[in-house]
Amino acid sequence: MLAVLNKSVAKSPDALQQNGAVSALKDGFLATHFSSVHSGSFVINLASSGFVAYSSAKQNPLLPRLFAVVDDIFCLFEGHIENVAQLKQQYGLNKTANEVIIVIEAYRTLRDRGPYPAAQVVRGIQGKFAFILFDATSQSTFIASDEDGSVPFFWGTDAEGHLVVSTDSEIVKQGCGKSFAPFPKGCFFTSSGGLRSYEHPNELKAVPRVDSSGEVCGLTFKVDEESPKEKPKPGMPRVGSDANWSQHY
């Protein structure tokens, strides 16, 4: 799976902006490249916001890929959730709902029920996963990886500062050059809040990243393990709050 998101809707951390290799959006460059190396792929144009791309070919049967669109919310998901039944009940979903629908509903709960910590919601998803979500209505992005980094997941910025996120490392290298880096495990990224950790939302530090030839090629992010852990917050607030999470978290 792949998403290239305009810097106007997904401003990447400053440490990740290391002069990407090409313009990923110009003339559909990276979308075309993705389609050429992944059979049976499809690309969804998000207009000026970028695009998302998906293919079910050559996937790991233990970490299947899923895609869904609900009310202009686009979501790419890879992996599996272990506590599916619990989350279906929590979010009021029917028995046929799968992992990608759970993620969309979790996001909609965050967006529509007021200021509720995104870290608490992602922490409640148990399993091996990575996902990319884009809300076309609010022009918001929500990206996350499980705490063990079980699904290979990478990101970077292209030559124009647009965010590139994919489970295909070679695709990200093609578009981002020295900006390429693994997406930090146990972390999530939002348009308005930037990069955060589940347990240490304010304690991520950028550290130099060295490639296989020994050259420094940008920075990656790690949690300061010595910082105090965030205490879990109480349950979901009542329905009907006027606040919109996607605008202020």
TrEMBL record:
Name the segments for region: Disordered: 223-249
| Stretches with biased composition (Basic and acidic residues) | 223-233
Q: Which SMART domains match?
A: DUF3700
**Domain DUF3700 as annotated: residue spans:** 2-223
PANTHER family, sorted: ALUMINUM INDUCED PROTEIN WITH YGL AND LRDR MOTIFS (PTHR45952:SF4)
Q: What is this protein called?
A: Aluminum induced protein with YGL and LRDR motifs
